[in-house]
Amino acid sequence: xxxINRRQVALETRAKAEKTYRMQLxxxxxNPALTLAQRQELQLRLGEVGKPxxxxxxxxxxxxxxxxxxxxxxxxxxxxxxxxxDLVALAESKGLPASGTKAALVERLLDS
Length: 112
Description:
0% strand, elongated
């Protein structure tokens, strides 16, 4: 079975999507019925294709944008109510050691 580099596949997929989006924006810009404001908005979008989006807390994101927020920390009772495999997965996602007893995992997660 050939090796599949998932990062490379993701980068190639994103590059194809950006290329398609640029093409769609250029096609939309060729429409003679556009107003000046619409043309400026499309040109702005065309210039921003491929750039990472950075949002400030003070300015709300544009409608439809996805803003990731850190989930609130789990309480000790919530952690103790979880099964050990779930605690192991949670510890691994936070970059913490995932070995030990359930009580040790709960304490490690509370300290992080």
